[in-house]
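Support case: user asked for a sample of complex input and structure output to validate their parser. Sending the pair below.
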Amino acid sequence: VRNWIRDVWQAWDWFWFSPADAATLALIRILAGAMLLYTHFVWTLELEGFFGQAGWLSTEFVYRYHDSAYAWSHLYWIESPALLWAVHLLALCVFASLMVGFRSRVSAALAALLTISYAHRASGALFGLDQINGFLALYLMVGPSGDVFSVDAWLREKRAKTECAPKVSCNIAIRLMQIHLCVVYLFAGCGKLFGQSWWEGTALWGAFANLEYQTLDMTWTASQMWIVDMLTHVTLFWEVAYIALIWPKLSRPVMLLLAIPLHLGIAMCMGMVTFGVVMLIANLAFVSPELIRRICGQLKPAVNAIERQPGSSPPTPKFRERRRSRQSSQEK
Amino acid sequence: MFMLSETAFNLAEPVLAIPQAGSLSDEEKRDYDKQLAAADALATSIARRLLADHDGRRVRLYLRTHDLPFPVDVAAGKKLDDPSLYREQFWREVSAKQANSQLANSALATPNHGVQR
């Protein structure tokens, strides 16, 4: 029992507190920062309509809709249109700063606060994209997302010619994203299980036949309902099983590869390009930093830098080694 | 803007069917009243914006529902925008005076205490 407890403790310690290279987090910062910049730039087209005092969403409606004292937003206090525009332009600068990785830690914290603040004020005009934006911004604040692929890293290397060592906080940020994403898919999948059409295999017909969302005409499937049936059940299985199959090394690539057609399908067929793309960005949390560096053509110097750092070797779970040695000694 | 219509439908559609007296428990009645108040606040808010944009004195709001056709009907040639798939339901009528009185109430609302009456 003592060994089991020690193994569990070490596994917990390894899962959360082993240092991680920042490449994955940095790539998510760039892409999520670009998405935050884009989605908040879109508000610019109707800024006073959504955030002004006499806009589509009055503050009275927003308070009643939230029914909570904790849905804070700085936009509640802005009455002057000129001030609203000034604050909005500053917010866009913050998102741009996060995207390029300039003063990354401060930018990430401000971006998270701003994202939540905008979402609280524009309640009633949001959808899944804004929720995923919110959780990505929140966890980017936790880790050193500007350690690589950033203006901060470029300036640091120019000054001191050093690279940042892998950090525990980077691992924590990535783990939080991974777990949050698993919970999102699990709840989405379980919610679908309550719907009869998901059991019958006709649920995706509801998406294909919805003219208001339609960007690609898929109504030809009306005479090929086995396709709708198959796509419905694959989607449901993928969402429910994600939390279990994304962790093993064997099934992870399959789950990530399936995420691409699933989310791009939503993007192309239902006109929700931003939502499809942001879900794929969130799925990057399960891509190893080594692979990202390899793709970015920076693997060799990065590996060298990691090897130079004492105690910063890629996390090898000691509990697994110990378990293996214990099993082999028992066999003997 | 599109999500605004979804929110309007999700808030207003359940409360448009007025429950019969005594059919709701106290807790259900409280939830119903809250949703009704939120739906009314949204209707007034949208109405005020429309009145301001079109310089109007009174506006009538409707909920328009677009039903999904069955696959067998579409396979037989029915269009997704077939007129039989649309339903319209009266939601609210708001005058400029009512809309502006809500704006005055909004000024009394505080983030920490909700709406003060």
